[in-house]
């Protein structure tokens, strides 16, 4: 396996498998195909979400997938690309991802975002996703009218 600089790195088989799962989840773009990798007790955390008056934590597969589906109604045809995934040395169940996203909002505006997240896996299932993104990109694209809140 190679890292971002195309130099050889050794990672464990568990980490390599988790990188493949992480990339599959991101490539599935919040669809049922990606949700199959979610643990029943998954936790989604969005530390910057409170700046948009949104919850910063969603617990459980049903609540998490409901949130993600509702988010996609605001960000139509969200496309994630330029996905880069990294294993954490000595922590094969932690994968760090960086990627870009583009969409058209329900108002017809262009949304462009840079994301970074931490994924924690247990037995090949995603148990924690902590994602960081720029709230101003959401505000700008939705004219301050983002409606991605989920009431559980």
Structure description:
With 152 residues, the chain is of the alpha+beta class. The protein has a single domain, classed as Nuclear Transport Factor 2, Chain: A. It contains four helices and six strands, in the order ααββαββββα. The chain has a six-stranded mixed β-sheet with strand order 2-1-6-5-4-3. The model has no long low-confidence stretch (mean pLDDT 89). InterPro entries: NTF2-like_dom_sf (IPR032710). This is Nuclear transport factor 2 family protein.
CATH class: Alpha Beta
pLDDT under 50 segments (min length 5)? none
CATH architecture: Roll
User: What fraction strand?
Assistant: 35-45%
Main beta-sheet annotation: 6 strands, mixed
- The level of helicity is 25-40%
Overall body shape: globular
Going across the biggest sheet, name each strand in turn: 2-1-6-5-4-3
Number of strands: 6
What is the ordering of alpha helices and beta strands? HHEEHEEEEH
- Number of H- or I-type helical stretches: 4
From the alpha carbons, calculate the radius of gyration and give it in angstroms.
16 Å
Protein name: Nuclear transport factor 2 family protein
Organism: Bacillus spongiae
InterPro entries: NTF2-like_dom_sf
Brief sketch in words of this structure:
This protein has helices at residues 13-28, 32-35, 61-74, 135-142, and strands at residues 38-45, 57-59, 75-88, 91-105, 110-122, 125-132.
Please give a handful of descriptors for the protein shown.
Nuclear transport factor 2 family protein; 6 strands; NTF2-like_dom_sf; 28% helix; 40% strand; alpha+beta; 152 residues; Nuclear Transport Factor 2, Chain: A
């Amino acid at each position: 396996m190679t890292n971002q600089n195309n130099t050889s790195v050794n990672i464990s088989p568990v980490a390599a498998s988790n990188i493949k799962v992480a990339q599959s989840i991101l490539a599935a773009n919040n669809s049922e195909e990606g949700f199959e990798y979610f643990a029943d007790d998954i936790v989604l955390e969005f530390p910057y979400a409170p700046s948009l008056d949104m919850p910063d934590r969603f617990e459980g597969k049903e609540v998490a997938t409901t949130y993600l589906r509702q988010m996609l109604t605001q960000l139509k045809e969200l496309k994630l690309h330029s996905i880069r995934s990294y294993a954490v040395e000595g922590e094969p169940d932690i994968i760090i991802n960086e990627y870009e996203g583009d969409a058209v909002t329900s108002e017809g505006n262009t949304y462009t975002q840079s994301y970074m997240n931490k994924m924690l896996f247990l037995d090949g299932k995603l148990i924690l996703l902590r994602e960081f993104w720029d709230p101003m990109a959401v505000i700008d694209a939705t004219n301050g009218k983002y409606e991605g809140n989920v009431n559980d």
